[in-house]
Amino acid sequence: MTSAPPVIRPEQRADEPAIRAVHVAAFPTDAEAVLVERLRAAGRLRVSLVAVVEGEVVGHIAFSPVSLDERVAGLGLAPVAVLPAVAGRGVGGTLVREGLSACRAAGAGLVVVLGDPAYYARFGFQPAFTFGLRDTYGGGDAFQAIEMSPGAAPAGGGLITYAEEFSGFW
After folding, report:
1. What is the spatial distance between Cα 45 and Cα 93, in angstroms, rounded to a whole number?
2. CA–CA dist 24, 32 (Å, integer)
3. Percentages helix, strand, coil for the chain, rounded to the nearest 5?
4. Beta-bridge partner residues of 82
5. Could you give the CA distance from residue 21 to residue 98 in angstroms, rounded to a whole number?
6. How far is it, in rounded angstroms, from Cα 164 to Cα 39?
7. In Å, what is the CA distance from 114 to each residue of 1, 25, 78?
8. CA angle, 25 then 26 then 28, to 5°
9. Which residue from 110, 132, 92 is spatially nearest to 46, judged by alpha carbons?
């Protein structure tokens, strides 16, 4: 596979087996692949993008609704995966940037993620506690948020919950 830049596009039905394969290859278990399938089956994949190089799906990113006091408060980024053969070539970063752009275009005011603070800070994520937000998983500094539009974080903060498909995942 060459080092051609990836083409980022919305997932298509025909991509589903390749998306599963990407997550299975990128993680130690199939848990993330199963999570994506559950979110898709429940109709909760609000933004789901693939990275394609030379006609092959090499990466995937998913965003699903998160709630505060039982109302949608924004989107949660999870999971994101890249085939090990192309890791370190910027595919994941491109997926995150394009995914955030798609979230903004879809009208999402807030996006949260549980992940490496050093990695996600380069995309503008900040510790969620700076917005008064906390998560049900006790993510601490790994729970981060980005306002897609100023003032989009819920006033007064609160407890963010992920879709029920995440139950038992973390």
Report:
1. 20
2. 8
3. 35, 35, 35
4. 59
5. 21
6. 9
7. 31, 20, 8
8. 85
9. 110
Three-state DSSP at 43 gives coil
Give residue-wise pLDDT tens across range 127-141: 999 999 999 999 999
Q: Which residue has the tokens 């090499």?
A: 58
Q: How many CA atoms lie within 13 A of 23 on its CB side?
A: 21
Residue with tokens 């991509």: 15
pLDDT of residue 29: 96
Q: Which helix (H) or strand (E) holds 42?
A: none
pTM: 0.95
Residue type, 42: A
Q: What digits encode the pLDDT tens for the residues 74-108?
A: 999 999 999 999 999 999 999 999 999 999 999 99
Angstrom distance (rounded) from CA 23 to CA 45 = 16
Phi/psi for 140 (5° steps) reads 55, -135
Q: Please report the pLDDT score of residue 84 as a whole number.
A: 97
